[in-house]
Amino acid sequence: MAAKHTSNTEDISKLWEEVRELSLGTSTQVERLDSPPSPIEFYRNFVAPNKPCIISNALEHWPALSLWSSDEYLCGVLDSSEVSVHLSPNGRADSLVPHPKDPSSLCFASAHVEQMPFCDALPLISKPKKNANMVAYMQQQNDCFRSEYSILFSDCDKHVGWASEALGCLPEAVNLWIGNHLSETSFHKDHYENLYAVVSGEKHFTLLPPTDVHRLYIRPYPAAQYSYNQDREEFSLQLDDPIRYVPWCSVNPDPSQGTKEREWNKFPLYFDGPKPFECTVKAGEMLYLPSMWFHYVKQSPRTIAVNYWYDMQFDIKYAYFNFLQSLNPTT
Asked: 3-class SS at 85?
């Protein structure tokens, strides 16, 4: 069995290298375009090979690019709006945290979601209190830009024209994200073609292609939910009842100095394998994040972004990914 495990790992590690050599390139930098591509260029050079890119000068015509830097403008427009705010004690919601009943193991924790007036929520992000035990992130992955923030929709494009033409459809969902440097998003993947536009601030992405799935040690973790008590200003974490399990990536690509050696020993396929792709998407730029790519995200203070989710094609690439995942030597 040990010999078979070693053989599988060696065979799959060759795949990591071949994908980079033949399709993605050996650099860890994401390709940058000076201007939006034509639909045929976008499809041929990036969608078909499942390859990310950053497009500059894609938002020059958006009023949001100048208007959304002002808290005064946003509060004036959204004065009567209630929005969904995700609250967590450390900015790491939808991620792995110590199990509430057994701190030596982990669970998958979801944020506490609070509905509150936009103008009450924004200062929690723009001017967070020092030493506060609560981190706020305005987001809701349910087409929230066209529902909770619809009054702002005229400040942006309703869809990305050249991408819609290339992909043959309009976005399934458009989401708005307002957060700060205290929030981070753990490694995960989405079943969407993602056009991610940064309007203010910066987003830093760490990326791995779908072929590297086994390097992230995806395992089932019990699901739990944060609950925030406003009066006591404290969180509690409760396991879901009935218990359910969420398959999630085990790797933290940026461990603290005190845990670095332990993380490297636990997850050698990640830390000893090819370096991940890294990119910083600045205000006015757009990232094309292909479907099924794993991404870990950090951001600068007061970052606002809009992303367009287009349905992916469930074609032979998806079948190949599922087959590859079934061969995962880390299971």
From this structure: strand
Instruction: Note the pLDDT of residue 329.
Output: 64
Name the residue type at position 225: Q
Our measurement of the distance from residue 237's CA atom to the centroid of its chain's CA atoms, rounded to an integer in Å, reads 23
- Joined together, the tokens standing for residue 301 give 């203070």
Q: Which residue bears the tokens 């193991």?
A: 105
| pLDDT 10s digits, 127-173 | 888 767 899 999 998 899 999 999 999 999 999 999 999 999 999 99
283-309 pLDDT tens trace:
999 999 999 999 999 999 999 999 999
Is residue 93 within 8 A of residue 134, CB to CB? The reply is: no
> What pTM was estimated for this model as a whole?
0.93
Burial 243-255 (b: 16+ CB within 10 A, else e): eeebebbbbbbeb
Select from 190, 211, 170, 218 the least CA-distant residue to 287. Answer: 190
Instruction: At 316, give phi and psi (nearest 5°).
Output: -65, -30
List, in sequence order, every residue forming a beta bridge with 303; answer none if it has no partner.
Answer: 179
Paired tokens of 273: 């394998």
- DSSP states of 244-290 as a string? -EEEE----SS--TTTHHHHHHH-HHHHSSSPPEEEEEETT-EEEE-
> pLDDT tens, 177-228?
999 999 999 999 999 999 999 999 999 999 999 999 999 999 999 999 999 9
Note the residue count of the chain.
331
Instruction: Give burial (CB, 10 Å; 0-12/13-18/19+) of 21.
Output: exposed
Q: Give residue 157's identity as a one-letter amino acid code.
A: D
Dist CA 146 CA 164 (whole Å): 17
**How confident is the model at residue 325, as a pLDDT?**
85
